[in-house]
Amino acid sequence: EAAASGGVVSGATVDSGGNLYVSSGGQAGGARLAGGRAVVWAGGTASGTVVSSGGLVSLYGSASGTAISSGGSEHVYTGAVSADAVVSSGGTEIVYISGTSVSATVLQGGIETAASGGVVSGATVDSGGLLVVNSGGIAAGVTVDSGGMVILENGAVTNGSIVFSGSNATLSIAGAVMPTNVISGFDTGGTTGDEIVLSSDNYSSSDSVTLGSGNVLSLDVGGTISTLQLDPSANYTGHGFYLSSNADNQLVVLDPISGPLSLGLNFLRPVIETNDSLALSGAMSNQKIFQDAYGSPSLIRSFVKDWGLLQEVDGPASYSTLSSYGGLSSGALHIFDHERSNYRILPLHFGSS
């Protein structure tokens, strides 16, 4: 099927093996590509296209409101503009050199990629969604919502702000050059679980992070100093930035708030007095066993270095095990998710109380 200049195709269904061509001056509205292909040439427009099951939009003109899911793809080529696309589970949008995606939304299981020279502007990455910016790709103003992830590969270009919104959002940065953009909303509450991952660097207890004047975050990684600019207007008073690692031993910047504690450490009691306790930093040789002061038989927890959190582990009932994975940085705050409420733990001398 074809929409020539001045022609309009509305509500077409294009199955596997079929094609829809939209020429300059032509329009296609509400097409459904269930394995079929639509080619929108320069000067042509498509709106409300639904792409799934191996369907493909090859875009050289303009498109708006494309819904991409379940094996569907939209490829945005030189001179093309895709506006307000929604990329959901199993869907992909790839923006190639001199192509532009504007205000896309990437939902759970969806992937948007800015290839070299491609521009992704104003994207929002929701929970479970992923935006990948390749070397030479450009991200211009990105919002990472709760559970979303943005990956900046080595050589990626960022323009405009990078905004954390909600909780448990992740910004992953590869390479030695840090983005100079303002990073807004990063764990401003201190307990949202946001992460900045330096994927090219492995965690080392000798590395450090410091928040300086103007909310400039200074990272000393292997003796090399780099900086990230957090929102200068954000109030990080009382926050304790620290470094940890993820399951791949990549360096992770975390920011739990480290304000006054009302409960201290009294809800954990040392059970085995002879084993090592955890100092401010560094590894310990043995495990320190703690018993829950409230006597909950179902409480089985472990301090885990990778995330600096208490997580479920196998062990004897009513005991908590302080893992020997390694030390916890002195600025860290750790959240103990007890059955009755949340308890905050400062990394002091855990064996003392």
Describe the structure.
This protein is mostly beta strands and 353 residues long. Helices cover 0% and strands 45% of the residues. It has no helices and 39 strands. The chain has strands spanning 2-3, 8-10, 13-15, 19-22, 27-29, 32-34, 37-40, 45-47, 50-52, 56-59, 62-64, 67-68, 73-76, 81-83, 86-87, 92-95, 100-102, 105-106, 111-114, 119-125, 130-133, 138-144, 149-152, 157-164, 170-173, 182-184, 195-202, 208-211, 216-221, 224-230, 242-245, 250-254, 268-270, 288-292, 301-304, 309-312, 319-322, 334-337, 342-345. It has a 19-stranded mixed sheet that branches. A 13-stranded mixed sheet has the order 1-4-7-10-13-16-19-21-23-25-27-32-31, with no helix packed on it. The chain has a five-stranded mixed sheet with strand order 33-34-37-35-36, with no helix packed on it.
Cα shape: elongated
Tell me the distance between the termini: 76 Å
Helix-strand category: mainly beta
pLDDT under 50 segments (min length 5)? Answer: 259-353
Please give the number of β-strands. Answer: 39
- Proportion of strand residues: 35-45%
How many strands, which pairing sense, and closed or not: the largest β-sheet? 19 strands, mixed
Multimerization state? single chain
Count of helix runs: 0
Helix content: under 10%
- Rg over CA atoms: 25 Å
**Mean of all residue-level pLDDT scores:** 77
Which structural traits does this protein have?
353 residues; mainly beta; 13-stranded mixed sheet; 39 strands; disordered C terminus
What's the quick description here?
The chain has 353 residues and is mainly β. It has no helices and 39 strands.
